[in-house]
Write a structure and sequence with these properties.
This protein is an alpha/beta fold and 211 residues long. It has a single domain, classed as Vaccinia Virus protein VP39 (Rossmann fold, 3-Layer(aba) Sandwich). The protein is globular, with a radius of gyration of 16 Å.
Amino acid sequence: MLLKAWLVALRNSMGAVRESYSQTGEDRIVEQLLEKEKITSRFYIDVGANHPSKLSNTYRMYRNGFSGLTIEPNQSLLRLHRIFRKRDMQLGIGCGDVPALLKFQHATSHVLSGFQNDDLKTSDFRGTEFIPVLPLDLVTAGLDIEEITVLSIDVEGYDTHVVSGASQTLRKTRIVVIEADAGDGEMLPLFESAGFVIVERTKHNIVFLRK
């Protein structure tokens, strides 16, 4: 599994920049928003970054000269980020609403791994480990960054916890791409209070813009 992930990252790093690396074109939507809104900042944060390039909302930005902070609790995947995304900063933690030490569930398919995944089948489960979790506001408080261009959040059911711990971070973020479904309605007021509006819904994600 890790060898395959490494080969995919190597192939993507050596090839021409693709039209999209996201699951359903979210990176292209972001690119269009950057142009339309004349956003010139070039720093992103990717929470639940997973693979450095496959199904990534930020890898196209990285290939186009942006850089940022990737947060990924899976240490094997984080090592790939350090190899293939050297301009980025990397953190091997989770994000939530309060500081904690939580049990991280590893799935056979790493895209399903997470802190809260009630849908994880026994056949997909391959172990747990305890991972430190911090509110995103604590993480970004130490960054000398005036504006966060894009905040991408994909944490397999733990999204509302991440947003709840990111109120100050949201106020200096222009675009948010977050995995969401019908059960995530409770986090929408958190975005509204920070001045965000929904500009796009894809099959798996919502794209927010702060005017």
